[in-house]
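[audit] Reproducing an earlier prediction to check determinism. Same input, same settings, fresh worker. If the tokens differ from the archived copy the diff job will pick it up downstream; this log only records the rerun itself.
[audit] input (837 residues):
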Amino acid sequence: MRFTIAMLWPIVWRQWTHQAWRHAVVVLAVALGVALAWSVHLVNQSALAEFSSAVRSANGDPDLVLRGTNGPFDDAWFDRIAGDPAVQAASPVLEIDSYARQDAERRLPLRVLGIDALRIANLSPDLMPRPAADASRFALLDPHSIFLNAAARSSLKITDGQILLVQSGSGWRTLVVAGSVAAGGGPLAVMDIAGAQHEFGLAQRLSRIDVRLLPGGDEAALRTRWALPPAITATRGDDATQRASNLSRAYRVNLTVLALVALFVGGFLVYSVVSLSVAQRTPALALLGVLGLTARERRTLVLQENALLGAVGSGLGLLLGTGLALAAMRWLAGDLGGGYFPGIAPTLRWSAPAALLFFALGVASALAGAWVPARQAETLAPAQALKGLGAWEVPRVGYRVPAALLAMSALLAFAPPLFGLPLAAYASVAALLFGGVALVPVAVQAFFARRAHPASATLLLALRRADHQRQAATAAVAGVVASLALSVALTVMVGSFRGGVAAWLDQVLPADLYARTAGSSAASEQAWLDAATVQRAAALPGVQRLRATRVRALAMSATLPTVALVTRPLANPAEVLPLTAPALPPTQGEVGVFVSEAMVALYGAAPGTLLELPLPALTQPVRVLGVWRDYARQFGSIAIDDATYRRLTGDERSNELAIWLAPGADLATVQQELRALLADPSMIDFASAAELRRISLRIFDRSFAVTTYLQVLAVAIGLVGVAASLSAQVLARRKEFGLLAHLGFTQRQVLALVAGESAVWMAAGTLVGLALGVLVSMVLVFVVNPQSFHWSMELVLPWPRLLLLCAAVLAAGVLTSMFSARGAIARPAVLAVKEDW
């Protein structure tokens, strides 16, 4: 009777229970990788789903949305649109981003929507006001009534019937909370559109018109028939949801890829552990081969075992990841430090298809790590292995495969982004890592190119064997090379980014004190300082110099977030803007602007090109004179000369003040005098340059906190892999150690022999890992970052930290290998096959 795979599972189970710790390491490696990636995915998708749901709740479900490209437009267009025979329903909306407070409390951001209660229910039912039980039956039409959603009530701590103060320009409007509204998301309020137009100084103005067409309506024909002016654009109803997704897509994808690093490195650990398992089970596998188990069935047996272990690890990883996601959403408010979903407290959105995908990734990682050991089990010679003559062989990898991988990596690094994401760059990093790991034997050979001849026989034997068996170095230090390379790359990337942000902050924060009226470009339309207040502020004692800035939002695309228009005195742009290259000279009769790097990537606004700005005052395109770094705005910003902007638009409002103090002036005193200029001191926020710098860097560190965990986890997995690989090789060399014992070698000398070999391999692996890490960091800094976030940075190599990291990994690897070898040779060679690690 012939063996079958199914008949061997009882034997496999007994072997698993006898060596439970080793198989638990495989399960743990897969579980950690799946847990981290799954938790990041859950948090991101839950936050995005909640944010998108809030957007849909506030925007309803229209077929078309007519929106002003430069803010509110004339409401006379509503009658024209609503009266079209092809329009089934239309609803006017006025959108206002402002601030609210109760009594003397600090102000909080609040989005106010002016709606027509008689029309809104058909298109946006979640915006339909729900009057309180004791409210007037005419509260829906009362211009002084306002209705709050749950988030607004919670943040403002206000109930029905109480007074709410809402900021409008340099003053406050008094409104009465008359009920609630079902819309979700961040703090939101709804009021009658006529009242909103009056209270916020936007008489006869609309922000958008939501339109639902009759069945069979032709959108293209309607747009032609309506003949909309450039100040009004017609977009599909789901464009707002797409814009919400695009807001954080790059951040979400990059964070997920970083989280998958743990699963990637875990595959090397699986490789090392399974190699140890195959080495220890060589006599048993050989016996089964003699009894009829074919080579292919031996390979299948090993792969099936690890597929099951990968499945168990993936299942545990999904459970652990779900718990991590719940904790992250509780403590990090669902944005993982990115700040893309302010005011969102998402509930867990568990997706079965996504869970199956991450489950499959975990199983695939286990199978990929087990493939080479399974091939070793397939190719062993049963008769020789039973006599103890079989060796733990590592497949030889020539120069062609690593050279091809490195060449492929270089080509992929120069590839453009796909679907707006650096997918080719991620593949470049993977090819670079695999190609670099395969070159470890070359590094060992180079190490011995000019070797000395030591006097010690033990050391000489260790060096000779390390050179002769350099192919085995790939198996021994593959995990360390990969983990160290990724750790070095993350260290360089984060250090370069942080150093770039710190230098940028030093350049864009030259003043002593900063004041702003709004935290966003949208809110700046209802929170500003007039010209008279700015002049009085400049004349205060202790103020040596003052620069006022106007910031406003421009809608340049229907599917991308708004662009920030920033006014600055640009007589000498290099002094006030961190330019990436010298600026072009201005052209007589043209308006010159400076754009951020994101504008070049997203809108093709390279220096010298003409750019259409959605400003009624600009009747001709503006000329791009230069590009500047703006790490604060991912989707683009445009700087225009302050005097030119005010001359063209007549807009004398300001949103930000940069204040230089006179010598000897007290910062707190100047700040107090500035507050005294305002009717309400809470309408402006102050911060010193040092405070802004500290806050900005703290936000940066929080955003990249996950990379520290990844570095520690990657290095730990790599060191465990070293222990497993060297244990496998020590067990396979039991005959060799027995012979050395007969020749007079003590256990201490054998231990020194193993330590010398591992030191050579670890040194080669550390050098390769360092070189690979620098190359990977270059791909991350110069390719992934610009393609993901549309800004550039200088490469910063913190050599003291990198050398310390390499030294720590080298020392830990040698010590780990010595500990592993000590356990493996503690008993006589004839019993080594039974040794556990």
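[audit] rerun output stored. Observation attached for the diff report: Confidence is low (pLDDT under 50) at residues 829-837.
[audit] end
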